Amino acid sequence: MLFSDHPRTHYRNAPAHEVICQLRFPSILTINTVEPADFQEAIRAEFPQYARRQEVPPAVPGTQAQPVANYHFLSEDGRWKLNLTKDFIALSTLRYPGWEEFARQLDKPLASFIRIYHPSFFQRVGLRYVNIVSRSRLGLEDADWADLFAPAYTGALREEDVREDAFTLCSCDLQVKLDSSCQAKIHAGPGRIKNNAPGATQDPEVKFIFDMDLSMGGNVPCTLAAGALETLHAHSTRLFEGAITDQLRTAMDPE
Length: 255
Hints:
It contains eight helices and nine strands. It is of the alpha+beta class. The radius of gyration is 20 Å and the shape is globular.
């Protein structure tokens, strides 16, 4: 089962590692050439920290890629990051508090962006959940991944003639239409999380990554952006609940 009608539940031990919302729009060149002072002033109370980075996108064959200004705005405690470029605005967090607070954090920056820059529409509205499940954190050291995730994501791990730890790679990648305008790309499977910081100690535990990248395409009017995100969030709930088993639900401590 890919989708579930299980009631939306808030888990005290939710596995959300990173949540990202990105809205792409037709390029606004002034964002790339003029620092967004008016935008910063509108959101500075919530995002007081600022940095500007020049990034070079991958070049199209036969052309030379031009640097793109990526403006970073961080909350005082560093929990929230807002990015603005000539092509998109994005909000992300590594400490997801739940959908309602995430949506509230986006409301003012998105409204300010629309008021100041007047985008014609949004070409893509995206919502991504990177979930990482640790068995040791949940007290599930003796459980197999096949006990915790649905067969759609653990097919080969369910075979009785091969032990789970015999697999060096066992993941699946899906792309599925959710309705007439929405789709999801899903990556799921066990793996180790690498820490790329210089000299960092690596975590030896094998965790299960369940990465959902949901999007709505077409020309979404600015006035419907919030509704589009609500639609994507509703789809994400059905996908996540369809992916997990009752054993994992219990271990995540539903409220």
